[in-house]
Write a structure and sequence with these properties.
Shape: flat
Order of helices and strands: HHH
Distance between the termini: 22 Å
Helix content: over 70%
Oligomer: single chain
Number of helices: 3
Radius of gyration: 16 Å
Structural class: mainly alpha
Strand content: under 5%
């Protein structure tokens, strides 16, 4: 059972790091435009596309947003 707790802590740390990297990429792209070379893609457009996809799904999208909100604010 201790292995599962260790794996859970590692995965939560990786998820937290990923959220920080995405937030940094969004801020850099907003400040410097699409020409940020080390970001590697259009992060803002991808986030907007995700929000539009969830918004167009009605109740299913609302539930998905609720689950994502719960996952990110569990601490």
């Amino acid at each position: 059972m201790n292995y599962l707790e260790t794996a859970k802590k590692w995965l939560m740390s990786i998820l937290d790091l990923g959220l920080v990297v995405v937030a940094l990429a969004v801020v850099l792209q907003v400040l410097f435009g699409g020409a940020v070379t080390f970001v590697g893609g259009d992060v803002v457009a991808n986030v907007i596309q995700l929000v539009n996809a969830l918004g167009s799904q009605g109740l299913v999208g609302l539930v998905a947003v609720g689950v994502l909100f719960w996952v990110f604010n569990r601490k």
